UniProtKB/TrEMBL annotation, chain A:
<dbReference type="GO" id="GO:0071949">
    <property type="term" value="F:FAD binding"/>
</dbReference>
<feature type="domain" description="FAD-binding PCMH-type">
    <location>
        <begin position="1"/>
        <end position="170"/>
    </location>
</feature>
<dbReference type="InterPro" id="IPR002346">
    <property type="entry name" value="Mopterin_DH_FAD-bd"/>
</dbReference>
<dbReference type="InterPro" id="IPR036318">
    <property type="entry name" value="FAD-bd_PCMH-like_sf"/>
</dbReference>
<protein>
    <submittedName>
        <fullName>CO or xanthine dehydrogenase, FAD-binding subunit</fullName>
    </submittedName>
</protein>
<dbReference type="GO" id="GO:0016491">
    <property type="term" value="F:oxidoreductase activity"/>
</dbReference>
<dbReference type="InterPro" id="IPR016169">
    <property type="entry name" value="FAD-bd_PCMH_sub2"/>
</dbReference>
<dbReference type="InterPro" id="IPR051312">
    <property type="entry name" value="Diverse_Substr_Oxidored"/>
</dbReference>
<dbReference type="InterPro" id="IPR016166">
    <property type="entry name" value="FAD-bd_PCMH"/>
</dbReference>
From TrEMBL, chain B:
<dbReference type="InterPro" id="IPR037165">
    <property type="entry name" value="AldOxase/xan_DH_Mopterin-bd_sf"/>
</dbReference>
<dbReference type="GO" id="GO:0005506">
    <property type="term" value="F:iron ion binding"/>
</dbReference>
<keyword id="KW-0408">Iron</keyword>
<dbReference type="InterPro" id="IPR016208">
    <property type="entry name" value="Ald_Oxase/xanthine_DH-like"/>
</dbReference>
<dbReference type="InterPro" id="IPR006058">
    <property type="entry name" value="2Fe2S_fd_BS"/>
</dbReference>
<dbReference type="GO" id="GO:0016491">
    <property type="term" value="F:oxidoreductase activity"/>
</dbReference>
<dbReference type="Pfam" id="PF01799">
    <property type="entry name" value="Fer2_2"/>
</dbReference>
<dbReference type="InterPro" id="IPR012675">
    <property type="entry name" value="Beta-grasp_dom_sf"/>
</dbReference>
<dbReference type="InterPro" id="IPR008274">
    <property type="entry name" value="AldOxase/xan_DH_MoCoBD1"/>
</dbReference>
Amino acid sequence: MDLTRVETHRFAVDRGDLALRPGEHVLAGGTWLFSAPQPDVTGLVDLTSLGWAPWEDLPDGGLRLGATCTIAQAQQAPWPGAGLIRQCADALLMSFKVQSTATVGGNLCLALPAGAMIALTAALDGEVVIWTPDGGERRTPVTDFVRGPEVVDLRPGDVVRAVDLPAAALSRPTALRRASLTTHGRTGALVIGRAEPGSVVLTLTGSVPRPVVVAVPVGSPEAAVRDAVADAGARVGWYADPHGAPDWRAAQTARLAVEVCAELADGAP
Amino acid sequence: MNLDGTPVTGRPAPGQCLRTWIRASGGTAVKKGCDTGDCGACSVLLDGVPVHSCITPAVRAEGRTVTTAAGLGTPEEPSPVQRRFAEAAAFQCGFCTPGWVVTATALADEDGTVPDGDIDRCFKGNLCRCTGYRSIRDALAGRANVTRGGCGEAFGASVAAPAGARVTTGREPYTLDMPEAGVLHVKLVRSPHAHARVRSVDTSRAEALPGVVLVLTHRDSPGVLYSTGRHESRLEDPDDTRLFDDVVRFRGQRVAAVVAESAALADRAAALVDVTYEPLPAVFDPEEARTPGAPLVHGDKDAAESRIAEPGRNVVARTSGEVGDVEAGMATAAHTVSGTWTTARVTHAALETHGARAWVDDDGTLVVRTSTQVPFLVRDELAHVLGRDPAGVRVIAARVGGGFGGKQELLVEDVVALAALRLADRGDSRPVQLELTREEQFTAVPLRHPMRVSVRLGADTDGRLTAMHVDVLSDTGAYGNHGPGVMYHGVHESVAVYRCAAKRVDAEAVYTNNPPSGAFRGYGLGQVMFGIESALDELAREVGLSPYELRRRNVVVPGDDLVVNGPPSTDLEFGSYGLDQCLDLAEQALAGTAPAVPPGEGWTVGEGMAMAMIATIPPRGHHSEARVVLDPDGTVTVEVGTAEFGNGTATVHAQLAAEALGVSPARVRLVPSDTGTSGYDSGAFGSTGSVVAGLAVQRAAEEVRRQLDALGGPPALGRLEGQLSATGRSDGRRRSVAFNVHAVRVAVHPASGEVRILDSVQAVDAGVVINPEQLRGQVEGGVAQALGSALQEEVLVVDGEVLTRGFRSYRTPQIGDVPPTRVLFARTFDELGPRGAKSMSEAPYNPVAPALANAVRDAVGVRPHELPMSRDRIWRLTRGEQR
């Protein structure tokens, strides 16, 4: 929709352009920003002109996704296994037409419980790289960056530059399960499991206000997995919105976690 | 930007989205369905890549190529995809179609087909509310469903909709698909309070903004009380609404209107209107609302003058009556069942939002071009409210982008009309336009009435009903538009279809400070049938009969009276009867398919059915006057005042005229509804487009045929010196009944709460089938809409505040949510309808929810009592069973 209060739009070409004037807001894909009235936004600073690479190989073998990398581009990145990114892209409510414009950074900054790029990068031990207004840079784990629904660890003048995924996590087997009130609808609960030696690291999103990571020993009985998930969810509270009742979300998260553990156990040598 | 091959000069505004830039540049093939990137109606190709133009910053399109549906082909030379959509009849209202065509083009092979396998995922960003998606799947697969219909083979054939080529190529002009230059735009200021007195409205800051031309408030409002709900008789709805009121009764009620030179400016100025409110006590629960001491929503109204049953008890309408002795019938019954069922608020989700444009012609005529199902009723009420002669008001309805009852209301026309008149008084003749946002569709215009339905049934040892008691509480929200009608209709055919010596019905429609409820497909029957048909299912279990057999023993047959809770209906008759066939067809069809095998571990399967009766025409008269003109070159022109909103009447009227005159339907030209030129028509509601307007068209065409025959028949056509013409009329006074039986087999996964439909069948008695493909499409679309309200859709309202304010949080069925439904036709001939036909557009919706609920009950052993049967509710329902 038209953003009726916006009076200026400028394309950023270097870092100096990211100093925001009052009322200015950074614009990446714009697919969320343009989907709701923005009564407080009077200017847009476009990040897509900065020429950030959609992805880069990191020296340690990890993968950097640029903040302006679109969901479609992210699926073309050199993943050790392409399954998880595709599953996460499919978990988004948005259609493939939106995925060609919407960005990884935008999904992180929107900080919705159902944000599938949050799920992906949290499950892979991602670190958010933030450009600070003093010209510096700080890094924060995705699980700390997203603090709650539509609340992130960004201070005035901060701009998300990228999310870095370490090699160690990228190489591990993963499994994903998802529940929603309709088959292709917005996620109500999403569980990604990452097989580590001796444990399964479960990342819970969708059903909780912020991503929650809980590790369970390999071979844990079903009841133990359910209990671990119940405790982890209870610590942050099960999320309630029109996409599912909290009691249902809690139960689905536990069920999905059990399935994820079973799948990773089946695949184990 | 290069738009469909034409360079566009000029630059977009900084915060502008591509959709409005395209439309401002003349590209009206892109539609606004949501403006939030969820529905896909605005899809375009940006340098060949499909995007939703409403969430694409317009600046990104500068210097690039933008292709809309209009750039892909023309009506004369459609693209392969466009041809597939037209040949498959893959549209009804067609408002979403350009977006589908663009999206499919991005995915299609050269022959215009889209490979199967990933369609549910690829098209989750394209919503269609009309078709139920089967015909769209056919288009994507390259299956053709229609014929052009040759001479003498028009009636009964799957003739293509006349608008097909225009709709699929983005050429069909919907209400607001007009040039935008010089048009003024309205933005409404809305109440944040559920109940409040407006103490003051300060418009000075808004008026001071350059480009703002007018601000209207309650001070400008005519004193006339009226209703947004429209009927043939304006006395059917309570007079409880003012154009702008100094009391607001729901969050979202309009308080003021800002008229400005652009929509963006109007939006900015609306935020500068300063309103001071004095909050008043509010009531949100309908049971509380009718309890003594509750805040009164319309306590200021006079009961007789406003036609409100009991303003002192928040009751807008009530019925209470008994035939026979229900308590005695219950006491002597061998089997009794009872229960209470509830239904949710649902939005129509027509892809086109409400919109209208008004201006005053040079001769002083007020002209309103609007997206309405009832142009003549809008004309008459505008004249009433604004104190004008109806002859000085002209209402034009272009093709309407979906209605489902939602456009049987006066919701935007009054505002633009008042604004246009005010401006004309000052010599400003610019048109004034108001287009609602999708959020306003959820928060400020009527939704489906939520109801609580309690049912008690008694039966003898053979399963014959001995007593039937139905108690209904309907929440009409802050205003009573359609409140009485929906309540009376809701308990009418649902109860009358059963033969029972002792019946009692108590029903009340109650005001609350919730958003208003209004007309919605089925008009109350679906809500009440959810209770009655569920209770019947329970009774069949108690008696030990199949649900089909229980119905056979209890339904009315020709010769029976149609009784609710008083004297039998006198204006309803069995013009035909196919309920027996429908029961047989549905039962056999479901029995004839695969046995009930669960799709995997943890699933259980079940079967269920429910039935529905509906009157073919609303009560107390429905009028239509049609004119048919035959030109010497064989062209036939049909002028009829009803509206085409995806119900397919344009096709039916072309078929009826062609059949009578012995020409090909392709020779028939239809003139859109215009109260300035068309004969009077009560409008497109109550499923009357075929049986009332169609009958008028048929009579006019037959009269022209008699004139032609008198001159020597069709061979004389070439020798005609002038036109032949005639006018036909029908008044809808005699009404018949139509029937639907829905049967489903489902699998339920208690652990997740998922209900998966394994087989779905609907048998319909629509009399003689005028157009099989179109009828099938109406049934499929009704079933899909019903699946939405049965399983997933719900407008959440807490303390009068709507929480689901867009498609993103409201689950309108996507293509992947709608399984195929087999549609079977009973063979009957109706004595009253055109050439034996009956109406069939609301009815398919009604039996689906109870059929599904009964199947879920069969599968899991627990009966659902609440809609929607969402996964979280089904999980909770079955939790006791799985542990």
